[in-house]
């Protein structure tokens, strides 16, 4: 095979594998990010549950203050009761006492209701904290695996980079410029195999003359349809001479 063509195939393969490293690394990072996001969502849940509990507790405190005010009021009503001089005053005091007692029982019911709600929220908080613990342990494990995998990918990438620069050190400049021009639009498919007499870049059938040239591999042949550099695919064993 033509040496330049051989070099081009190698270079193209290195470039293709180099451009595949970044998505592989991103994929690893995304794996970890999914777990971190879940943990963050749990933390948000924990914070808002804490706020809800604080709110319930402050409502409970208000009810307690109200209760002690009512108690003072009832005490003073009891005192006034002794000094009542007529029926009208007595009735007014009784009514006042009745209302205060109703308010006491309402405040007690409210406290009971708030306590139940608080207990439920505290239960929820506990669940959140357990979930977070599990998630954080998972994150620790996954982080180790992901970091190892990324390090491995980086090693492979460095190896390919080294091979690539070694290849480039003895590469023909004109051929390199030619390749880079095609690569600008064709990206990783600047150099493609021919399979079943078709260009594997544009998938168009190539004519017999071009096909014969590709099979011989004595010179650099471009696809007449798209301009990519062609080489003989592995399964392409038929020769036009046969
Ligand atoms: Zn083509």
UniProtKB/TrEMBL annotation:
InterPro entries documented for this protein: CT398_CC_hairpin, Oxidative_Scav/Glycosyltrans, Zf-RING_7
Keyword terms, alphabetized: Coiled coil
Boundaries of every C4-type zinc ribbon domain copy: 198-230
UniProt xrefs under Pfam families: CT398_CC, Zn_ribbon_9
Gene3D superfamilies reported for this sequence: 1.10.287.1490
Domain CT398-like coiled coil hairpin residues, every copy: 11-183
Keyword presence, Coiled coil: yes
Coiled-coil regions, chain positions: 67-145
Chloroplast as UniProt keyword: no
Name used for this protein in its record: Zinc ribbon domain-containing protein (DUF164 domain)
Organism expressing this protein natively: Aliarcobacter cibarius
């Amino acid at each position: 095979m033509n040496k330049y063509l051989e070099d081009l195939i190698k270079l193209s393969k290195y470039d293709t594998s180099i451009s595949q490293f970044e998505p592989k690394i991103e994929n690893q990072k995304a794996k970890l990010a999914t777990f971190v996001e879940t943990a963050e969502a749990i933390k948000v849940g924990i914070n808002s549950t804490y706020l809800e509990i604080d709110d319930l507790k402050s409502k409970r405190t208000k009810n307690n203050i109200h209760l002690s005010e009512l108690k003072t009021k009832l005490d003073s009503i009891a005192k006034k009761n002794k000094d009542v001089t007529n029926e009208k005053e007595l009735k007014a005091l009784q009514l006042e006492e009745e209302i205060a007692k109703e308010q006491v029982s309402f405040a007690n019911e409210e406290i009971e209701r708030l306590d139940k709600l608080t207990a439920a929220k505290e239960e929820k908080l506990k669940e959140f904290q357990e979930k977070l613990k599990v998630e954080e342990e998972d994150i620790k494990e996954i982080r180790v695996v992901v970091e190892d995998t990324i390090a491995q990918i980086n090693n492979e990438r460095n190896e390919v980079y080294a091979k690539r620069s070694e290849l480039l050190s003895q590469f023909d400049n004109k051929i390199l410029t030619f390749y880079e021009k095609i690569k600008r639009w064709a990206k990783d498919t600047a150099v493609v195999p021919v399979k079943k007499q078709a260009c594997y870049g544009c998938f168009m059938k190539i004519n017999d003359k071009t096909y014969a040239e590709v099979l011989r591999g004595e010179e650099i042949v471009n696809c007449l349809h798209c301009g990519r550099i062609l080489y003989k695919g592995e399964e392409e064993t038929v020769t036009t001479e046969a």
